Amino acid sequence: MTSGKDYALVRAVSSPMAAAAEEPTPEKTPEKGTQLQDATDTAVYKVTAEGDTVEYSKPSNQSGGTVVIPETVTIDNVTYKVTRIADNAFKDDKTITKIVIGKNITAIGNGAFSGASKLKSITIGANVTSIGDKAFYKCTALTKIVIPAKVNKIGKMAFYGCKNLKNITIKTKKLTTKKVGSKAFKGIHKKAVIKVPKSKLKAYKTMLKKRGIGKSVKVKK
């Protein structure tokens, strides 16, 4: 015979309301492709993997000056890794002067900074592997750049028309003529100096000439 105490325990365990209280339904995370807005700076992100990663899609309306692409962003209590800068994210932006890219970014999209005519300085994160087509097209105020060691692809016309780009350091050893798009370096400063890894000096001289550098540009180790 079940005692009153035991009966009360059975009722508490079997009650649907009690079970719901003990096991709350987890909050659903946004699906891939969902656009999110960061309340702290109003930048727009797009989910690239549900509950995991996003791309930086659009800067805030007050983004002028220095913009930092964060390593992570927390929106509605969900924290995402920021792994990509979207295509055309800063296209034709006339206000940004400096960009700092977080360490989780692996790809800079096509046209990401195309026509950002006041962009003078950019720090590319160490984990970037891909720089898209026209990524820095006609960034005419840009004077120097470091291409990190993990970069294995640079798209066509990536630095086309960066007429004041005078100092370039290429740390990666992974580039070939096939992995660098046509006219990628055409129109940089006529007397630019490009530093490359010692072991790639000869190969990179050939590759860079095929990809647009002028005769007076110096390529050295």
Protein traits:
221 residues, alpha/beta, 4-stranded parallel β-sheet, 13% helix, 28% strand, 8-stranded mixed β-sheet, globular, disordered N terminus
Short description:
The protein contains three helices and 15 strands.
Architecture overview:
With 221 residues, this protein is an alpha/beta fold. It contains three helices and 15 strands. The N terminus is likely disordered.
Give the SSE map.
Blueprint: H1 4-14, H2 16-22, E1 35-37, E2 44-49, E3 53-58, E4 65-69, E5 72-75, E6 78-85, E7 96-101, E8 107-108, E9 121-123, E10 130-131, E11 144-147, E12 153-154, E13 167-170, E14 193-195, H3 201-210, E15 218-220
Parallel strand pairs: 3-6, 4-7, 6-8, 7-9, 8-10, 10-12, 11-13, 13-14, 14-15
Antiparallel strand pairs: 1-2, 2-3, 5-6
